[in-house]
Amino acid sequence: MGQKYINKQYFSPDTETATKKVLFELQSERLRNTVKICYEKVPMYRQRFDEIGIKPEDIKTIDDITKLPFTQKSDLRDNYPLGLVAVNKEDIARIHASSGTTGKQTVVAYTEKDIDVWAVCCARALTAAGCKKDDFVHISYGYGLFTGGLGLHYGAEKLGAATIPVSSGNTKRQVDILCDYGSDIICCTPSYALYIGETAKAMGIDTKKLKLRAGLFGAEAWTDEMRRELENSLNIKAYDIYGLSEIAGPGVAFECSDQTGMHINEDFFYPEVINPKTGESLPDGEYGELVFTCIYKEALPLIRYRTGDICALSHEKCSCGRTFVKMSRPRGRSDDMLIIRGINVFPSQIESVLLSLNMEPNYLIEVDRIKNMDTITVTVEIPSSMPNNTIHNTENIEKKITSAMHSALNITAKIKLVEFGSLPRFEGKAKRVVDKRKFE
Ligand code: DLL
Q1: Could you tell me what percentage of the chain is helix, strand and coil, using 3-state DSSP and rounding each to the nearest 5?
Q2: What is the number of structural domains in the chain?
Q3: Where is the domain boundary, 334, 355, 385?
Q4: Which atom of ligand 1 is nearest to the CA of 141?
Q5: Based on the domain organization, do 285 and 428 belong to the same domain?
Q6: Domain that holds residue 422
Q7: Quick check: 228 and 234 in contact, CB under 8 A?
Q8: Average pLDDT of adjacent 10-residue blocks, the chain of 440 residues
Q9: What is the pTM for the complete model shown?
Q10: How close is the Cα of 248 to the center of ligand 1, in Å?
């Protein structure tokens, strides 16, 4: 251990760099086992398999996965709270729930082993971002039913780093802790990282003097433009981390030094990308809905779970040496996609345009329908650095953004510039879209 461990490039070197053949065998064995358990222990799966005439023996390799039925968020809600759990109550070690604000919450369960596997996933993510055993890891994801805080917490501990469980909120105190304890790595949503950077600046702190080296940001869609913004503001390298409660929490996929997509921990979660309309599997490079099968989960082994996230997969060789398949950064969930007069737009695409024009990364998108016509208004803060915000200057900027939005996305948006600091800031997942349209 000792020095050798400190300089580790991968947390699980054998698995993270395994050959396709080794992974195939491992995934096939784990899928066979999962399907058997689901059939025996989860009434919904037994019924679904029976309906389409599938028996566990029909699943021989991972390639047979497409014979299995999909699972959807509504299945979890219909079996609320724990109807899809495959273990006895005494084996459940932890409960979390999705951060959704509408409808019934999605409740998820873990055995002790599930928590350990999840910690390994987060330890791999931290390691890929350069985190070492002698680092201080400052965790500003919320602790509680949300998986962000505890997920990264267990990951940092598994790696052997010193974990600082700050949770979210009390932003000035976050800055004080970053300065005083000398945190090396920070974990929070990209929106909160922005707010922390802004608060540090307002407190007169030069972030170049902090020890902070890297950040693991996720739980919401963000862009490469936002990455640059965060890297400048906090003087760090910013890494993406992806996950969802239903599958584990943070650490389902993570970025490496190559930063060309996120490696999926495919020894535990087998991914597919499908056409969301037909359910048909799509080849590498094609965007569609991401689907996961938990092939190594005890408490809640979901089969072909439709995440609603839109992305593409890539099996191309990665410079970091990991062989795990990569997913592109999700543009957002399919239900976040806005349809404005027939044109599909993701809020993250609007973010890219705003930031490419050096606007502040604080914005609000409001969509409405007036006289049967969709309207979109984007309110964005005037950059704090803009020297002279006269009306003339403001109008010019608004025109520039309208025209850039039109050429990049083919939408005509009304742009409203507001004073720096007037839009809300977020400590967790940002809420930047208000859709006021009512469909009869
Ligand atoms: O957000 C888990 C998490 C915590 C991931 C901390 C990363 C860091 P849920 O609250 O269940 O779980 O929300 C899951 O958030 O389906 C995506 O739509 C979105 N999401 C998560 N990570 C990313 C990301 C956590 N890196 C939902 N990029 C997912 C884009 C993300 N969207």
Answers
A1: 35, 25, 40
A2: 2
A3: 334
A4: 6
A5: no
A6: 338-439
A7: no
A8: 61 98 98 98 98 98 98 96 97 89 84 98 98 98 98 98 98 98 98 98 97 98 97 98 98 98 98 97 98 98 97 98 97 87 95 95 96 95 76 86 97 95 96 81
A9: 0.96
A10: 11
